[in-house]
């Protein structure tokens, strides 16, 4: 309840900030994209993590305004990176299933790109399996509208949704993100390794890009390399950091 009260004024009081976590090509070690992760520094409560305030934002009816702010701000940042000469550097934004259910989502995304003067090709949206599975027929249409704009679609936390895999054929998806829970013990646990290897093989067969989340150790990295995983996201390279810090990190990596 306290979170909700503080959250109501957080947008207008400018209490949000976006941090960006790089997504790195395993082969070339090039930073090819970044995930926008929302941070809230409440003057009253201190820093509150998104796992704590996003559910409150959803139940309090605040998620659409907050989500729109995140999308617009992420588009502006993607444009800055593009203007700085980073080629094809994409930014991905997490969408709540409540946002996805809204009829105005597509026009909101379109406007965010237009107002930032950003090519929609440089924007990706992340949706969970459960969000897209809720109403398959309807969601195919919405996802196609997003794809038709040129925006990429990524399935977040892949493998945790207990859902049928048949939707992968139906939906215009670009990227699967293997959930961190499968990656964590990949170097020690043959079962987890087998699951991750199978997901990667599946993604390749379906021509989907694959991102392994939560990579922290060289052992995990090596195993993923053996499985020909495309892209790595995790503390091994960087946690989510402010945009300027990521710019610096990328300049150093060149
Ligand atoms: O940043 P962190 O790893 O603590 O994120 C925790 C959770 O909060 C993740 O599941 C992430 O997807 C979610 N999250 C972070 N930023 C946003 C956001 O802008 N919108 C939504 N809907 N979820 C977010
Ligand atoms: O659910 P989603 O994938 O959107 O959330 C990403 C979350 O995972 C963020 O909270 C982010 O801080 C966290 N995260 C990213 N990389 C790592 C990692 O290597 N280790 C751990 N423990 N968490 C990570
Ligand atoms: Mn995500
Ligand atoms: Na995830």
Automatic annotation (TrEMBL):
Residues covered by the EAL domain: 1-254
Protein name: cyclic-guanylate-specific phosphodiesterase
Biological source species: Brumicola blandensis
Residues of the full protein shown: 333 to 586 of 594
């Amino acid at each position: 309840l306290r979170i909700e009260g503080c959250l109501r004024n957080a947008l207008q009081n400018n209490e949000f900030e976006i941090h960006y976590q790089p997504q790195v090509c395993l082969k070339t070690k090039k930073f090819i994209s970044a995930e926008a992760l929302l941070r809230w520094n409440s003057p009253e409560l201190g820093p509150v993590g998104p796992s704590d305030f996003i559910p409150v934002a959803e139940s309090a009816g605040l998620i659409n305004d907050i989500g729109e702010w995140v999308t617009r701000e992420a588009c502006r940042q993607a444009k800055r990176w593009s203007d700085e000469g980073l080629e094809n550097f994409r930014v991905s934004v997490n969408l709540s299933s409540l946002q996805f259910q809204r009829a105005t989502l597509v026009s909101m995304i379109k406007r965010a790109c237009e107002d930032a003067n950003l090519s929609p090709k440089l924007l990706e949206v992340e949706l969970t399996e459960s969000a897209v599975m809720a109403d398959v027929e309807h969601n195919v249409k919405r996802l196609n509208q997003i794809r038709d704009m040129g925006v990429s679609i990524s399935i977040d936390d892949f493998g945790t949704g207990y859902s049928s895999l048949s939707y992968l054929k139906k939906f215009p998806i670009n990227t699967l993100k293997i959930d961190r829970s499968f990656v964590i013990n990949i170097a020690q646990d043959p079962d987890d390794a087998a699951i991750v290897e199978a997901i990667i093989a599946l993604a390749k067969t379906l021509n989907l890009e694959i991102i392994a989340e939560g990579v922290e150790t060289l052992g995990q990295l090596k195993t993923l390399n053996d499985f020909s995983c495309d892209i790595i996201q995790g503390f091994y390279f960087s946690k989510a950091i402010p945009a300027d810090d990521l710019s610096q990190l990328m300049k150093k990596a060149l």
